[in-house]
Design brief:
With about 140 residues, the protein is of the alpha+beta class. The protein contains four helices and five strands; from the N terminus they run αββαβααββ. Helix content is about 15%, strand content about 20%. The chain is globular, with a radius of gyration of 15 Å.
């Protein structure tokens, strides 16, 4: 018997494959972004490789952004808030991301999930605000 089509969608979620990042020579291009941690009132400046997601970047740094579902779009703990300028430079969120954002605490019109924000040159200088409250949607 065939499994329902809905079950097959699980594999399509999650971060883009690393091969999706453009490679120019061997040097990984990087940009500078800043994390504002409202819970601990800390600011952290980070050099972020182009092609990586916020989720991947915080794993490599000591930044207190929870990512309960490991970047699979199954929770809302990596909820961040962006400035309008940088928000507008991102591709529009998928429906799955919007569904999860509905469950996030302190959501704003400029909210995104960190696992869906992929670094690109245009995001250099971006400020990523991490709200004080997090809600785990799972």
């Amino acid at each position: 018997a065939m499994a329902p089509a809905r079950a097959l969608r699980v594999n399509t979620l999650g971060p883009a494959p690393l091969s999706a990042a453009p490679h120019r020579g061997f040097a990984t291009e990087t940009i500078n972004i800043k994390f504002l941690d409202m819970k601990n009132n800390e600011t952290t400046e980070v050099t972020a490789p182009v092609g990586k997601t916020i989720f991947e970047i915080v794993q490599d740094q000591s930044i207190d952004l929870e990512c309960s579902c490991e970047g699979t779009l199954a929770c809302s703990t990596c909820h961040v808030i962006l400035d309008q300028t940088y928000f507008d430079k991102l591709p529009a969120p998928e429906e799955e991301e919007l569904d999860m954002l509905d469950l996030a605490a302190d959501v704003t019109p400029l909210s995104r999930l960190g696992c869906q924000i992929v670094m690109k040159k245009e995001l250099d200088g971006m400020v990523v605000t991490m709200p004080a409250n997090t809600a785990d949607a799972r």
